[in-house]
Amino acid sequence: MNKFLDFFSKKVNLKLIIFSVVFSVYFLFSLLMVTPGVGLESSRFINSIEKQISKVMPKGVYVVDGTDPTYDVVMESVIKKSYSADAISTLNSYEDSNYKTKKQEYQDFANRWYENKWSEVKTNKQDVDLYELGLDLIEFDKAVSTEFLSYGFVHAGIQWMFNSNGLNEIFSKDIRNDLLRNQTIINQELYDSKLNASESGISGIEVYDSLGTLLINNKVWYLNKQIESLKSGLNTFGHSIFKDKSLNASNMPKTSVTADELYTPHFTETLDNLRAGVILFFIFLIVVLPSYTYILTMLIINKKKGNR
Hints:
Helix content: 55-70%
Distance between the termini: 20 Å
Shape: elongated
Order of helices and strands: HHHEHHEHHHHHEEHH
Oligomer: single chain
Low-confidence stretches: none
Structural class: mainly alpha
Strand content: under 5%
Largest sheet: 2 strands, antiparallel
Mean pLDDT: 90
Number of strands: 4
Number of domains: 2
Number of helices: 12
């Protein structure tokens, strides 16, 4: 017992510094491991999508003319179905036993999102810059992920950790399997051949079957489908729906997107780091913090007694 008490009465200043440094390093290390999470990888992937959108449909280039006679049809078919096709194409119709139910849920969610975003624009027959549509589709994707998949897929690790059911999801085998599938890339032609959808045109895109979210494959397909829609818009019922009538297929800024142009996320590796960080963080809260508080208190008491 005396040896234990002697520990706090000798070299007090040095021990205060050492324990404070060790405590701070441990805290910062555990915090850094839990802060980014899967959301950081998603953010990097989203940034690469946004970069491609700016190339495929640059701001101010493909602007749907609000005075065009086909405006209402374009809004209710092409633009509205852009949301549902985006969401439904991420469902695996070949393996998911609840595909029909999920498809309807995704359809309803997409329709509500479209109405909230574009109903007033449509009513007022305002011009629509497809670049803005592209950016809104990114926000829509985030909302779909949060609503139907997991909050943690598009949020910081520390937010996920303290979100409702967050810890269960972080250590869930199913979540890890979903992330593994999301980061997997297969041959694009094979993926496209399994994605049964309508042709791009004035009727909009309908998705009938899909392998679902092999994330990069899915977004490559979708971006290329949007390029086809742009081409269709250049000749709808014999005229262009865009304000700039000089646009044509030969002067399109970009005619295709490939997998190597998108960021390849490392979801499972990031999740494993997050799991380790969560464990370290709770060890910090349960063991390290109380121990440090006790040691700090004892050292300060002895320092006040004149021990240095």
